[in-house]
Automatic annotation (TrEMBL):
Top-level taxon of the source organism: Bacteria
Originating organism: Hyphococcus flavus
Cellular location(s): Cytoplasm
Protein name as catalogued: Glutamine--fructose-6-phosphate aminotransferase [isomerizing]
Span of domain SIS: 40-179, 212-354
Stated role: Catalyzes the first step in hexosamine metabolism, converting fructose-6P into glucosamine-6P using glutamine as a nitrogen source.
């Protein structure tokens, strides 16, 4: 049941405030502003390395978590796609933990990587949406996420719920390792509790994004750039667009643009700049200006202040609510999802069943 939406993808995008709130409630005690983890989780105090493995969109959730585990838990962390990790000679550590992220819990490469990590003595945990899946069954520890069934082939609400789970795990890991103070935890939890409302706020830009998408639909290529925690969101935006609109899209770390891809910039190439107001804002804006100096069409995604400060000469801008800078990816995912969705509907593609793709990839 699409509940009045044209596609499951639209329904699932709009469900995010609710399912994100559910996922938060699985971890957060709002009265004490602390994160609780299920019993029997990794001994974070002893963990010497965390290896995070996933495919596709779930891999991008893992990439965001790298910034969180490093900053809050000072935990050495390695992240790779399952189809690569499996075939590398990973020097597994003695007290290593391996975390697998999957919506379906049936992705063949992720499952095979899990078995490999187990054979190498790692403790196995998963952030998985489908509770009765193979990956859930084979893991020692299940970190909950509460996205509910995801029908649209392109993952949306599962991604933001994965981000919420991972943020909570990283916060708790920081507390346990003594690298995050109670005060810092409380600030983060307070910001986390505001996320559902901010995601609802971000969804209100739908009409504006639909208008912008009419132009994007004419493009033959599009770039997405971001720095820090916004870099994986650039990758996710590009993946979502190519999956359902079939337009060639690439995501780059903003600082990498000038090391090659900038050669492709001209007046026909839109570039989506994910630029929340954080420590990287000025640098990202200067990358955006380099693009504009070469006649690239910059589409700035930032908060009100960010757009007021740097959005003046851009081709277009999408206002996105300001949040805690480290948690911005959860909110900034919404505009890139909507942009992909409306670009696809403008082109008239089969949004929920894009060509060549399956909801769960059970072949290696
Ligand atoms: C993208 C998408 C895929 C999946 C990937 C992993 O929109 O849906 O990239 O994220 O196939 O799937 P799961 O999370 O089920 O392991």
């Amino acid at each position: 049941d699409k509940e009045g939406h044209r596609h499951f993808m639209a329904k699932e995008i709009h469900e995010q405030p609710e399912v994100i709130a559910h996922t938060i409630s699985r971890y957060v005690d709002p009265s004490t502003k602390t994160v609780r983890l299920p019993n029997g989780v990794f001994d974070f105090a002893k963990l010497d390395r965390l290896t995070v493995t996933a495919c596709g969109t779930a891999y991008y959730a893992g990439l965001v978590s790298k910034y969180w585990f490093e900053k809050w838990a000072k935990l050495p962390i390695e992240i790779d796609v399952a189809s690569e990790l499996r075939y590398r000679d990973v020097p597994w550590t003695k007290n290593g933990g391996a975390l697998f992220i999957s919506q379906s819990g049936e992705t063949a490469d992720t499952l095979a990587a899990l078995r490999d990590a187990r054979a190498n003595g790692q403790q196995i945990a998963t952030v998985v949406n489908v509770a009765e899946s193979s990956i859930a069954r084979e893991a020692d520890i299940i970190f909950p996420m509460a996205a509910g069934p995801e029908i649209g082939v392109a993952s949306t609400k599962a991604f933001t719920c994965q981000l919420v789970s991972l943020a909570c795990i990283a916060i708790a890991a920081g507390r346990i390792r003594g690298t995050l103070t109670a005060e810092e935890e409380s600030v983060l939890v307070t910001s986390l509790l505001e996320i559902p409302r901010l995601v609802s706020e971000a969804l209100k830009q739908s009409d504006k994004i639909e208008t912008i998408a009419r132009d994007i639909a004419k493009a033959t290529g599009i770039f997405y750039i971001g720095r820090g925690v916004s870099y994986p969101i650039a990758l996710e935006g590009a993946l979502k667009l190519k999956e359902i609109s079939y337009i060639h899209a690439e995501g780059y770390a903003a600082g990498e643009l000038k090391h090659g891809p900038i050669a492709l910039i001209d007046e026909n190439l839109p570039i989506v700049v994910i630029a929340p107001k954080d420590a990287h804002f000025e640098k990202t804006v200067s990358n955006m200006q380099e693009v504009m100096a070469r006649d690239g069409k910059a589409l700035m995604v930032s908060c009100k202040d960010g757009i007021a400060e740097a959005g003046g000469k851009t081709w277009a801008a999408i206002e996105t609510p300001q949040t805690h800078p480290m948690l911005a990816p959860i909110v900034y995912t919404v505009p890139v999802q909507l942009l992909a969705y409306f670009t696809a509907t403008t082109k008239g593609t089969d949004v929920d069943q894009p060509r060549n793709l399956a909801k769960s990839v059970t072949v290696e």
